[in-house]
Specification:
mainly alpha, 8 helices, 206 residues, 2 domains
């Protein structure tokens, strides 16, 4: 009885395994095939062997399953090397901000806002402020936002030394964070941070 049961079990397993095979127009049975046959190129890896992963192929092309080089680029590279001496900029030509977090005094003295203080730009800064800043600093920069009230100690923009903070100091604080304020550089593009600075300066003068 046990031998018969074992034989039937092996036959069933064999039938299941062979039914998953792929050939020509029959793609076989696959679990999440979009994970196996991604059309995207992996920028940080480059497998140039066209037969790599050929043993797990379930399609009829000439490439192995693990081959991921880009034949449309020189040397089949995926990640292209930037042009020599080039630096990434925004569409308006702003350079990345590279001043270290512990250099806020330097930023306060030397970092200047590259954007003009137009009414349109300040209005755009206000809209951004109401998304990212109002919860702590409040609608008028008094530190009375819903989160700010709970945290306590969020300073008003128009009082004390905060009133005289330079645009470089404000921008550096938004970017790198300070004290209990987390850095917003990863969340807000550099141009939008400068717009917020322009609006914060209007709150300093209220």
């Amino acid at each position: 009885m046990n031998r018969l049961f074992t034989t039937i079990t092996l036959l069933v397993v064999f039938a299941i395994l062979t039914s998953c095979g792929a050939k020509d127009d029959n793609q076989g049975l696959e679990f999440a095939p979009n994970m196996y046959h991604s059309v995207g190129y992996e920028p940080l890896t480059q497998i140039t062997d066209v037969q790599a992963g050929d043993w797990v192929n379930s399609d009829s092309d000439s490439y192995g399953e693990y081959f991921n080089s880009n034949p449309n680029n020189p040397h089949s590279m995926n990640m292209r090397v930037p042009p020599a001496n080039s630096v990434a900029r925004t569409k308006n030509g702003l350079l990345p901000y590279r001043i270290p977090k512990d250099s806020i005094d330097y930023a306060a003295l030397y970092v200047k806002n590259p954007l003009d203080s137009t009414a349109e730009l300040v209005a755009s800064g206000k809209a951004l402020y109401e998304v990212f800043c109002i919860s702590c600093h409040g609608p008028n920069g008094q530190g009375d936002g819903k989160v700010g009230v709970v945290m306590m100690g969020v300073p008003a923009y128009n009082l004390g030394r905060v009133k005289d903070l330079s645009e470089g100091h404000i921008f550096h604080t938004i970017t790198m964070g300070k004290g209990r304020m987390y850095p917003h550089g990863p969340q807000i593009p550099i141009e939008n941070r400068w717009k917020i600075v322009r609006y914060v300066q209007t709150l300093q003068n209220q």
